[in-house]
Sequence to fold (512 residues):
Amino acid sequence: MNKLLKLVYSNKVFAIFTLIIQVAFIVAFIVGISNYIRYLLLLSNLISAIFILIEVNRHEESAFKITWIMLMATIPFFGWFFYIYTHTGIISKNLKNSYRNAKNAVDRCRPDDADVIRKMEEEGRSASLAKFISRAGANPVYNNSIVKYYPLGDDMMEDIIFELERAEHFIFVEFFIINRSSYMWNRIVDVLVRKAQQGVDVRLMYDGMGCLNIVPKDYDKEMQRLGVKCQVFSPLQPLLSTYQNNRDHRKIIVIDGRCAFSGGINIADEYINRIDRFGHWKDTGIRVYGEGVAGFTEMFLTLWYTVAGIYEKDFERFINCSRIHSFPNARGYVVPFAESPLDNVLMGRTAYVDILNNAKKYVYIMTPYFVIDEFIYDAMSYAVTRGVDVKLILPGIPDKKAPYCLARSYYKDLFSIGVEVYEYTPGFVHAKTTVSDGVRAIVGTINYDYRSLYLHYECAAYLVNVPQISDIEADAIDTLSHCRRITRHEYSQYPWYYRAAGRVLRFIATMI
Fold:
């Protein structure tokens, strides 16, 4: 039922509808029902040509351009009609304006991180990516922070409950998936409601698509009656607007400005291996103490006020309170950053490419989905050619067949440049973790695929020289011990039609 509802509420229904119209036009043309059909098809071709010209001149990733151009050139009526639908939308434009206003308001409270960046450079640390995140994304660089790394959701669960119980002032919770019937959520929501009744400012935001059919339709109102401020990001409205494509895929918990959790872990029992879905569920997360918590607070408030359309006059108290929870003797740097489809800054892709381009010894990557553009592929090739050991860890048991088949279609290309590919035999890898040379890492929600890199709202933390990077490295090595390495010979044994299907799926890779 859940899959059926997601289909009904998705753009796939619209696509099928317009394809049916396309077929009807073609049939009418063949049987000669109307003398006007040929003129309508001619008009359709002319409209397609106009939109192809528009698309060629758009500032957009080339893979998206190619997909649209091929659709409009080969399936004229469906192509341009679907193009108009996906490139317009009053709601999308209103959301963009609201996001810009919220971002500007929150940014005015951001600390000046020039001294922190200067300190990075004095220590001989590469500050180029940190500068980019700070200047292009307005996400400050923090020191005086302590990080804890979780190699499994199972490990993170109890710490979340412990920290929530300690809350005195405010709790911010933002997740893509919240399963109301899960053991995990019931433990968390029990604390949230109790804290709200004690006077703690508790705010909850969840994604309309991610929580479809696993929370009631009016669950936000139910939570508000219990004292929890609640908003649904992008509630589903069939065929109304393509902003439904841009999901809130982030996972954030902020407590009193002193503590923040993030990573790939959603609130459902498979993420803590309480139930078995697709074998053992491998996921990762982090907890941050100290000044770096402010970065996650800023991210939450920006999207919270974007959805609300308004912001409180004294909201900066939430951001500034992280300064009193400083750890002056802490090593390393924490750079929380957000990815948004409402600006033209590709934070996630730039971060991953920078890690690959500046690696000296190794880069280990864990991701559930692998659908990359030429920038990441070229960065991988550049790294391997320089002698960098690049290892890619993907699921051994997939959660979705089409993205899995599509990811495997890249294996041959990866073999050709020397990237080692591994599949996690115990089950499903949902972690989004990249670690390099024992000194740099990214942990967050950003997959190596088009949806995360271009379409969704995402978040992550770029970590430099924090002691816990050794834990991330150790976890990657341990995970590799539970993987099988995929060889060129093994790939050649996949059925020819399976390999062909993956190549065909690349045609619509930007839409999967």
Q: What stands out?
A: The chain has a mean pLDDT of 89. Residues 11-31 form the longest helix (21 residues).
